Amino acid sequence: MNSREALAIGSDQKPPVLFRGEYPQWHERFMNFIEAKTNYEAIYKCLTEGPPDWPMKVVPGNPAEERPERQIRKSIGDFTKDEKDTYDAEKLAKSYLLQSLPNDIYACIDNFKESSKKIWDQIEKMIMGSHINSQLKVTNCITRYDGFKARKGETLTETYERFNMLLNDLQKNKITKTNTENNINFMNNLQPEWKPFVSHIRHTQTLEKLYLHELYEMLLQDEEEVMELIGNQKAEEKPAADPLALVSERRGKSVSRSSGKVPVLS
């Protein structure tokens, strides 16, 4: 694990760091981080509802001086236990959020530090974008799913892992695909050498009841044979040697052996 991955995961003492393009993962890890705290509910309430109004206390009036009774902000030393707990939860919520932001993201939210909720909301708006941007993400996900293809030289496992990441993105964007759709898309877009093995599965399996990981396990049994077919195909694609060049090379070697001189070919 490299240092960036360690920062993104966080620890029991340090919140996970948010990197661009990884908001969903960060959000889940951040929630797991604060759930482990004893005052989790208070911290969560600060993030989602904002802190309550600052506690006030009543200052008695003085009729002799014509001063009416009034309310002023309490000093922290006058807080009740519940008020102190809420105040501490807000401080922790802000601290955890600010610790989780790298400098480039922090620079974009430093005007929203008056409460943890404002920071929380601004991060989501900035990273996740507007409704229009969300729609673009959905469209891009569907386009990548429809255009999925195995890459040349890629192993079955590498193709399978890329496809799974794509399915995970679809689920994040609440796009549902059936087992049949996923199985057909995966099989149709493997390298051509997989065709006979894919055809066998189509005729022997019920695709709507077959999960993708089961399909992968079935295909994996034939990968060695497919790789051999791919290797043979590459060998056949090698360009044939130029016959004139071969003749010249042989004549040159023959002359060289007889005379001991390096031949000059015209």
Automatic annotation (TrEMBL):
| Name this polypeptide is given | Uncharacterized protein
Q: Which organism is it from?
A: Arctium lappa
